[in-house]
Amino acid sequence: MWQALQHAAWVEAIATSRGLYGLFLVVHYCGLFSCVGAIVVLDLSILGVANRHQPLSALVRQLRPWTWVGFGSSVGSGFLLFTTKAGSYVTATPFLVKLFIVVLAVVAALIVERRVSTWDQAPALPLPATVLALLSIVLWLAAILAAVEVPALTGLG
């Protein structure tokens, strides 16, 4: 199945076009910067390091478009990049580890986004909020570091 995808005409067009492949890389990285940057700003606000003068729920409303448009563009462009070597990526343990970490980081981001309105109403930020914000930052850092290592460990990318 993955080999068939990899050898589809439209995928081969992406794989053999430096301009097209490069464009998808740029979209992927810009989306990641937008998504992860917005999530980390919120996490740092929860930790009391950034943007202390605005309610968290207002900050979430401002950052939500940046987070999810960035995430969507990263997923879409990431899939297109993945298709160029799909047969190799699906068997590469470092790549699968990276995807697992990204899933955990997205789950943490979703939990934070859903709980912010409750945390805003509390007289003081509960300990689980700070733990989750710190965990979110660690997971995104781990995902980025894992992504950087995929080419070095597998020769892919």
Notes on the structure:
It is a single chain. This protein has 157 residues and is an all-alpha fold. The chain has one domain. Helices cover 83% and strands 0% of the residues. It has seven helices and no strands. The relative contact order is 0.15.
Q: Give Rg in angstroms.
A: 18 Å
Number of helices: 7
H/E order of the elements?
HHHHHHH
Number of domains: 1
Q: How helical, in percent, are the residues?
A: over 70%
Morphology: elongated
Mean pLDDT: 94
Structural class assignment: mainly alpha
Poorly predicted regions: none
How many strand segments?
0
Terminal residue distance: 20 Å
Report the major sheet: none
The fraction of residues in strands falls at: under 5%
Provide tags for this entry:
157 residues; 7 helices; 83% helix; 0% strand
What's the quick description here?
The chain contains 7 helices and no strands. It is mainly α and 157 residues long.
Helices, strands, pairings?
Layout lengths: L1 H5 L2 H8 L1 H29 L9 H28 L2 H4 L3 H29 L5 H28 L3
Helix pairs in contact: 3-4, 3-7, 6-7
